[in-house]
Amino acid sequence: MTDESLSGKQWRRLAISVYLPTTLSFIGFGAVVPLLALTAHDLGATVPQAALVVALLGLGSLLGALPAGMVAQRFGERRSLVGSLIVDAACMLAAALAPNAWVLAVAVFVLGLSGAVLMIARQSFLTVVVPFRFRARALSTLGGVFRVGNLLGPLAGAAVVSAFDLRAAYWLAIGTSLAAAATSLFLPDLPEHHETTAAESTGMGTVLREHARTFLTIGLGASALMLVRASRDALLPLWAASIGLDAAQTSLIFAASSAIDLMLFYIGGSMMDRYGRRSVAVPTVLIMGACFGLLPLTASGLGLTAVAVGLGLGNGLSSGVVLTLGSDASPNVGRTHFLAGWRLTTAIGQAAGPLMISAITAAASLSVAAWSVAGIGFLGGAWLWHWADPKRMERPSA
């Protein structure tokens, strides 16, 4: 599958072995995540403790980035994916049967760790098997699949919880994780040259040191993009509440933003493959930066909807761009170690967005927080324009 084209048959094979299990696992994940705080509270946790349980998911994903690279390097992509999905199912089972909030917290933390392995193994696999001129479309489609799962998951979770009880969502997730593990067994074998270079790969520390400049240049720009993207979920509901919108109106505005987001992922990938990574990375972060700059000027549901749609446009087109930039820069030798460092770099930006908004809002106001995110968006766009120049990036490795 590493020639210079992808046939319809090969795309269908990827759909069955990569995109289908990803969709299944994210449906279960999306069904459970909105219910974690409620489950913790049901088990006797206080509000701060319930919030901590939810935060452990992101913390596990962040701390698991580098170990995930070592796992994928040691066991290979297919075994890592199947094994991690089985661990996911075990975590969901532990959460479903948890007698107290502490057991739930451990299950959630491990779920974050296994999620990091899944992410890196999928990205590494697609980086190797998909020709370079189709890479952005393949990775943007993966990003789109995440969005589909996150859209369908809460709907499926709501359905089973309404029909049964709160724990039913976890049993649904167990089923989707095991189904995803079964379909991941159809993952094609990687090319022989990748197995050879993987076996010869140097250690994690060596790979990270050798590519530190990449993490501090293009990685920093990608981290800024992740920060801006993550800020949408924090700022939009807070601003909606500040202008007097109720929960139903806020949900509808989010739905409009998500709908635009979901429709554009393949277009963004196609543009990157045809016109280069900067053709998407730079405009999208500037669009989102401009939207956050306009946010404090909105005083009605209509104005906020316009801003939310603009954010959906930028977020949708940028689906897969961070994965693609990382894959482009990844070396043949030590690829999964590099991708682990890339994920850690960009995940820090993703985690920093909501934290920065919380700190600025406490010290100043929501408007200042929005303008700060806008400023980072504009700076990130300039940074990406400079460092995402193909002449500055490392030579494509696949």
Automatic annotation (TrEMBL):
It comes from the Bacteria. It is a multi-pass membrane protein. It is found in: Cell membrane. Pfam families: MFS_1. Residues 14-392 form the Major facilitator superfamily (MFS) profile domain. The chain crosses the membrane at residues 16-38, 50-69, 81-98, 104-132, 144-164, 170-190, 211-228, 248-268, 280-299, 305-326, 338-362, 368-388. One of its GO terms (molecular function) is transmembrane transporter activity. InterPro entries: MFS, MFS_dom, MFS_trans_sf, MFS_Transporters, Tet-R_TetA/multi-R_MdtG-like. SUPFAM superfamilies: MFS general substrate transporter. One of its GO terms (cellular component) is plasma membrane. Keywords: Cell membrane, Membrane, Transmembrane, Transmembrane helix, Transport. This is MFS transporter.
